[in-house]
Design a protein that fits this description.
It is built from three helices and eleven strands; from the N terminus they run αββββαβαββββββ. By secondary structure, the chain is mostly beta strands. Strands 1-2-3-4-5-6-7-8-9-10-11 form an eleven-stranded mixed beta barrel.
């Protein structure tokens, strides 16, 4: 616990670099591994605007992942979001919702070259489509690079990440009575933190995230806490057989 508190204190000074808004994202979930290659993840996340001391968003997520090889996997996910309604005057509802569907792949570049390495450099490409009430749909292409570095500690690994968000339908205009959409890179995210592989299939992640918005005047800092518990099929022990004397 002292190590976790120390790490959190090291992350706090990063939040004072700019006058950006500070958020807290806290989530917890469970991972099911019915087979060695197949993983089902279910989680919930709560987002809080620390700077303004107001509720931001609640999320429910479900994800399917299949490992085609040790260094390559494909995944599909669904996310349901609940958030304050900016269009209260239209339906008199305090909260609104959104649905997001996504699919993509992850390729571990280090594991491809050196399969026994305890570090990883993962490239993830994903396309997602999100629907909102009273707002037009959002389609994104996301590209993420994440380095998980083995520093000789059994239970902890630091990580660094960078992710781009390219919205394919950011802008639109009418041309010859037809709507034409154009894309725009409207956000970059830079992350840093620590992954903890705890005993008995428990895992914890503590980190900070800088959101560089290309369409907003101000950016945002995020302090993240994430907990997961993994349920996997226990390996059956080989039954011991006593030797039968030959005649």
């Amino acid at each position: 616990m002292k190590k976790i508190s120390t790490i959190f204190l090291l992350l706090i000074p990063l939040l004072g670099v700019s006058q950006s808004t500070v958020f807290n994202w806290s989530d917890a979930g469970i991972k099911l591994k019915p087979t060695k290659r197949f993983t089902i993840s279910i989680s919930g996340q709560y987002r809080w605007n620390v700077s303004d001391k107001i509720y931001s968003k609640t999320l429910f997520s479900a994800k399917l992942k299949y490992d085609i090889a040790k260094a390559f996997s494909i995944q599909a996910s669904y996310r349901r979001a609940w958030m304050p309604n900016d269009y209260f005057y239209l339906d008199n509802q305090m909260n609104t919702y959104g649905h997001r569907f996504a699919a993509g792949f992850t390729w571990d570049l280090i594991q491809t070259i050196h399969s026994k390495s305890k570090s990883s450099l993962k490239y993830t490409a994903q396309i997602q489509k999100e629907f909102f009430k009273f707002k037009r749909e959002q389609i994104y292409l996301r590209n993420k690079l994440e380095l998980n570095l083995n520093i000789g500690l059994k239970r902890m690994k630091p990580f660094l990440s960078a992710e781009s968000f390219y919205r394919t339908n950011q802008l639109y205009q009418m041309v010859n009575n037809e709507i034409i959409y154009t894309g725009f890179m409207n956000e970059m995210r830079y992350g840093f933190g620590f992954d903890f592989n705890l005993p008995n299939n428990h895992s914890l992640q503590i980190g900070t995230l800088y959101r560089d918005f290309k369409t907003n005047k101000y950016d945002a800092w995020v302090v993240q806490f994430s907990y997961f518990y993994t349920l996997e099929k226990k390996k059956e022990k080989a039954s011991k057989t006593t030797g039968v004397p030959e005649f």
